[in-house]
Amino acid sequence: MPRKKQHIDAATAAKDASGKIYIVTGANSGVGLETTRQLVKQGGHVVMACRRVAAGEEAAASMAGLRGSTEVLECDLADLASVRRFVDAFKASHERLHGLMCNAGMVSMESAPIYTKDGFELTMAASFFGHFLMTELLLDTLKASAPSRIGILSSVVHAGTPKNRPAIHLDDLNFQGRDFNNFAAYGEAKLACVLYAKELAERLEGTRVTTASIHPGWARSNFGSGGSFLMRTAMTMMRPLTRSISDSNEESAQTALHVLLSDDAPNHTGAYFSQWSILYRDKTLNKGGWPMQSPNPNAHDMDTARALTAKARELVGLTDAAPGKAA
Ligand SMILES: NC(=O)c1ccc[n+]([C@@H]2O[C@H](COP(=O)([O-])OP(=O)(O)OC[C@H]3O[C@@H](n4cnc5c(N)ncnc54)[C@H](OP(=O)(O)O)[C@@H]3O)[C@@H](O)[C@H]2O)c1
Questions:
Q1: Which residue from 221, 257, 259, 274 has its CB within 8 A of the most atoms of ligand 1, so it is best to mutate?
Q2: Coil, helix or strand for 180?
Q3: Is 189 helix (H, G, I), strand (E, B) or coil?
Q4: Taking the complete model, does pTM exceed 0.90, yes or no?
């Protein structure tokens, strides 16, 4: 089985990022932490958007002494007011933003939907709506800092299987009138991320702000560790068995780093970039690609992508006129 993991090339890894400002969400753990560490090694300043500030500060301390710098700001993506406070705090001290990595994500481990105080299903809120609002509120700063880049963590799960492709349910994005399944919610949230990257790329044409969606690989991170005792025990026991088909957090950060730093990524704005994955059902796709075509036909539907943006703007309370092509 091919397991050739993709790494950023030497020129990308040697790029001087000093003077560049990045935001990485979920920067205290897993993929986000290793993405942050490499950006800081290369001289960048990373604003670590974390819902647990103490965990963010502990992670930041592990990077003290590297060339660049970090700061930790609180942000709970499952709380729109928290996202707005984060953006206000960021803008109060930064006029430029060269890279936004919408990295944080989770899957609810409950069999019934949990609703946030804003009325969103939790997995959709933390894995899509929170980043959607953050990105929309930061577009002016990203445009003023161009060339700049936006990466959005999706997952191979958005692709599903030939018999069961995740689809966007515009009339019921939050599982209020249909059966709930936590992994279906995760697949739909991650499909929404792929479509949003495409829609943004279209809207931002000509601004030199470029976008991408990302499958990071099968990361040996803390992902999925929030379940019941039984689930956590099962995950821990499976670790040695899945080691040979999973990736370190450093390997899982490579695709995000390629999107933020490589010369080539901006040539493919809106595209889906994937680390290798055993989980693509069509084995010809296992090797992934920077970029690659998603095998899910629903990930290529621009009418749905535009309608999703319009609906999401309404749901997160962005009530001004529907966004057209960037000014
Ligand atoms: N692990 C995989 O194999 C895999 C595969 C495909 C895609 N992904 C995606 O990769 C991204 C990174 O995941 P990971 O593997 O690095 O997992 P991880 O170690 O669990 O890290 C997830 C990060 O997201 C943060 N987060 C969760 N809910 C949040 C919220 N409501 N507000 C703000 N931050 C929140 C977590 O904060 P706390 O530490 O406070 O919980 C943590 O910092 C996610 O988007 C995930 O969906 C992962």
A1: 221
A2: coil
A3: helix
A4: yes
